[in-house]
Structures are given as structure tokens and as C-alpha cells.
Amino acid sequence: MDGIINLNKPKNITSYDAIRFIKRNFNFSEKIGHAGTLDPLAEGVLIICIGKATKLSRFFMELEKEYWAKLLLGTVTDTLDLEGKVIEKKDVNVDVNDIEKVLKEFEGEIEQIPPSVSAIKYKGKPLYKLYRKGVVISPKPRKVYIKEIKLLKVDLPYVEFKVICSKGTYIRALCRDIGEKLKCGATQAELIRLRIGPFRIEDSISLDEVKEKGLENSIIPIEKAVGILEKWKSNL
After folding, report:
1. pTM above 0.85, yes or no
2. Which residue, 156, 65, 146, is CA-closest to 104?
3. Which residue out of 2, 39, 81, 177 is catalytically annotated?
4. Which CATH number fits domain 65-195: 3.30.390.50, 3.40.50.720, 3.40.47.10, 3.30.2350.10?
């Protein structure tokens, strides 16, 4: 079998846990991988590549991403999400206009420092593994592109927004930087990946559905996946 699964990864499992689930529930001999990690606390679209489609994973990883995010103002954690330890608390004295103005400042090409707790490797080891051993490495800034950021809801201290961005963009880091600009700090409270290129959450399936339908009925064949991708790119 060669193709992809547009998987809706649930919260509280790693991206590799999703692969393990598929391997465990099916007599699996094909190559398998994913195209772009989602943090354990995040949910949403995760493209699983199977068989010859694993050779295309880098192309899927290059695609723009769309996220729904909720940030918590006035709280800073060491992991930049609610999984971490609170390291700072501040009063929140901002209004909707302040928030809208700051969000728009992040549109376009920006320099972003990725989280110290991430899958980025330092001397061959993921930063999150080093962090667990008490070694904190601050990654170098990288250029990322924010195509669009849209404020959806303000219910202080929470702010909800949508963002369309390039590969390599960390929404946890974006939440941190928004908090710094607002001078009250922030951490990511929730995150849902809505889309990777043309592959949308509305068309995704859950792990339970994969188990129920079977692997063959869950896979988008490689030719069809490439066709979806080419059609989407031609309409950009």
C-alpha cells in the first residue's frame, strides 16, 4: 500500500504514538512516517505517509499550514504551553485594539526563535530530551513567513486566533512573542492544526476510524494525493 492518511491526531499523544497505533493494529511491513510533527498537547491534521509515499514526505512538509490557537495572557511557562512549569505571572492590561494591532505586526516574514523544548536537534539530540536532563539550549533565530493572522475572540486572559504560516513556524513561539509585545507575557493554551496545504481537518479521520475502516479504506492512494496537491497548487 502506497499513500497517505489525513489523520486527525488527538491531544495527549505524540505524533509517533499515532504511527505506533497504526503499526500495532495492522500487520504492518511497509515504511511509515509522518510529514510534520504536532506537539502532544496539539491536535489536528497529521499526514501519515505509507510505503512509497514516505519519499514524498518532504514535499508535504514544505506546504503552508493553517492553525487555530488559543493563548493565555499573563502567564509564561518554560515550555511555552500548559504542559510546562509557570515561570512568570503578570497583570493583563490590554484591550481588543491592542491585541489586534500586535497580531498584525507579525504578518509577513519574521525572525522567530524556536522553543527550547522542541524536536529541533542539537548535536544529533532533540532539544526536548536535553531539556529533560537539565540542559537548556536556545535555538538560533530562523526566518518564517506568516501569510495571515486573524483575531477571532478575546475573553481575557484568553485570546483565540487563526494563522496561516510557512513550514518551521512554531505557534508556541508566536504566542510567546505576542505576549512579549503586549508586555504581559503569554503561553499557548490550545492548538489545532486545521490544514496542511490542501489537506483539511474536515476531511481527516481519527485513529478509531482508521481501526474501524481498516488501513486500505483509510489511505488516500499516492496518485490521488499528488493530484489533490497539484490541483491546489494550480489554484494558488
Report:
1. yes
2. 146
3. 39
4. 3.30.2350.10
